[in-house]
Amino acid sequence: MDGALGRISSFCDTEEVKIMRDIFDYVFVTHLPSFYKINLYNQLAKTHRVFVVFIGQASVSRANDFTEQEKNFDSVTLNTGAFEGRSVFKSLSALWQLLAKLRYQKIIVGGWDLPEYWLIALLKAKKKNYLALESSIFESHTIGSKALIKKFFLKRMKGVFYSGIPHRQLLEVLNYQGEMVQTGGVGLMHMAQMLVDKPVENEDWIRKKRFLYVGRLAPEKNIELLLQVFKNFPHYQLTLVGDGPLREKIKQTKTDNIHVLGHVHYQTLADIYHQHDIFILPSFKEPWGLVVEEALFHGLPVIASHRVGASMDMIEAYGVGRLFNPVSALELEEAMKWTIENYTALCERIAKIDFQARATQQVKSYTKTVLV
């Protein structure tokens, strides 16, 4: 059989059916097997019974290594092929069949933007329903019909695991009254795989002024602002790592000091971070921004739009960079100059961040409610 129903049928007809007799501490229902989610689930599975439902196997907008990761927990994938091309009806039917067999303490949905999440919110017991919230107040509607829909969804949630300050602000604006637990992130980055020796520090960065962007080359990432600004600073170097619909346009309009690498496998990404000095994330909207954590992990001060979800909890909280208005080229230029002038102090603060403690705390945030 093909598609979602076939996937569930084959799952339930194998020896794996025995796990349906277990009572899981967590059932996660999420979009895709993204590496940072899998890292989180793997850690939780060391001490708790975890089952994960991936709605899709892949995405047309993500490279293969985004979903390449060993899973050390029980899971099922509802739909093969591209997530965006799934049959929603078959997906909902498959999910309902699966949930009828699973027993669990908590079910945690990965958002409110898919019919699969609404199926759970509307038809499963509220006392077990939780939301892993990545949307922030920066990019979300807080008035009008869309806000009312979100408020209705939240009324069906016993609790919410939210990433950071802008995400809690969204819950407060939407007048959510349930349990709220801050996780401090959206998942765990590849710390072990990305540990490489950083070159000995020297004064080269002052001469080269090497800036880096890592992410999709898409309109919402505000790449065109970078092109505009770096045209005025030919002695600054900018590297763009990533792929997306704007790649060819960027290659045709960029200046000589801008280099487009395209997609880079995460196993080689650490070296690229270490070849640069300052990270820039100019997005119009960015629910969190795991690349901010990655850049800091590799010692780079961060310049980011104030609409980046991690801006308050990472950049401002640790004092490791500068924020700017994503529609202002002048503010970005000033942020770049300020970061260069304060580079040494910023690097010293970055060196004091305990990333392992942050990861441990994120895992522990989910265990606070599991047996309540």
Automatic annotation (TrEMBL):
GO MF, any single term: glycosyltransferase activity
Enzyme class label: transferase
Keywords: Glycosyltransferase, Transferase
Organism: Candidatus Berkiella cookevillensis
Glycosyl transferase family domain sequence ranges: 208-352
Coiled-coil positions: none
Source taxon at top rank: Bacteria
Enzyme Commission no: 2.4.1.-
InterPro entries assigned: Glyco_trans_1, Glycosyltransferase_grp1
Keyword Transferase among record annotations: yes
Gene: mgtA_1
Species classification: Bacteria, Pseudomonadati, Pseudomonadota, Gammaproteobacteria, Candidatus Berkiellales
Protein name per Swiss-Prot or TrEMBL: GDP-mannose-dependent alpha-mannosyltransferase
